[in-house]
Amino acid sequence: MDPHAPFLLRLSTVEEGESHREMVGSPEELAFQGDGFEPEGPISFRARIYRIGDRMEIRGPVRTKVRQTCGRCLEPVVSEVEAEVRVFAEPPDSRDPREREEVREDDLGIVYHDGQSVDLTDEVRQVLLVEVPWHPTCREDCRGLCPRCGANRNGDGCACTEDPVDPRWRALLDLREKAEE
Ligand SMILES: [Zn+2]
Ligand SMILES: [Zn+2]
User: Fold this and answer.
1) Minimum mean pLDDT among 4-8, 40-44, 168-172: which range?
2) How much distance in Å is there from the Cα of 165 to the middle of ligand 2?
3) 95: Cα separation from own chain's centroid
4) Which ligand approaches the C-alpha of residue 150 most closely?
5) Ligand nearest to the CA of residue 142, numbered in listed order
């Protein structure tokens, strides 16, 4: 097998009926770059394959870990990401072109193979991208950064006043202070 194409399935190695396969690739091999996160370690795909002649259904969980930045305190956050791949692989000439266009629109997850191999790299990549957290936080109750001095409020905090007075109340307090003078 091509070591640089871990998600390439050679048809000659897939038996008729049901079979299982574990495919493992590195972040570099999936070309995850500039997506707002870094994968931590390998990407694994436990595929269950049903083959009838030159058609196959390939499905199973894809797992990896990604490193992102907490949206509140900017500390690194590592999350487990799991997604489900489900695709049908078939030769390109098994449908007429018009029908193929409709299938694409319906997003049924069809990949075409050349009779030699099926490349699942794009499928694995796409399902993971959907599952990567959009607004990662290091923990549910992350207190974020102090708006005054920028210190991380999850740790020792800072010397700034705990709850700065809301400006809308400030006006009211000023009035009261005036009245008391
Ligand atoms: Zn945080
Ligand atoms: Zn502060």
Assistant:
1) 168-172
2) 14
3) 32
4) 2
5) 1
